[in-house]
Every structure is written in C-alpha cells, then in structure tokens.
Design a protein that fits this description.
The protein is mainly beta. It has one domain. Helix content is about 15%, strand content about 40%. It has 1 helix and 3 strands. The chain is elongated and about 35 Å long.
C-alpha cells in the first residue's frame, strides 16, 4: 500500500500554454484533476519560454 500512496502523490498533468503577451508557459496541475487523493489540483508555473 505504501508504494501506491507514493505514486499517487506524484501525479501531475503538464501543459504548455501561451498567454496574451505571446509568452509560452510550462505549467502543471498537482493531481489528476478528478480524484482528490491524487493531489491538491492546484496549478504551478514551472517555466517561461521566450
């Protein structure tokens, strides 16, 4: 059961998006977006590309 718990804590969906200033952002959501056991579902910015 411990391995399953550790795996669920690292679920992330990564996306590259473009903002209104034409900058590309690398963002991720903690968790799978559906099951609260997979993470907080909060969004984070990992990087900005020119």
């Amino acid at each position: 059961m411990e391995a399953r718990h550790a795996e669920m804590e690292t679920v992330r969906d990564h996306f590259v998006i473009e903002d209104e200033a034409d900058e590309c952002l690398w963002v991720f959501r903690s968790g799978d977006g559906i099951d609260p056991e997979t993470g907080s579902h909060r969004w984070f910015c990992r990087g900005i590309f020119a």
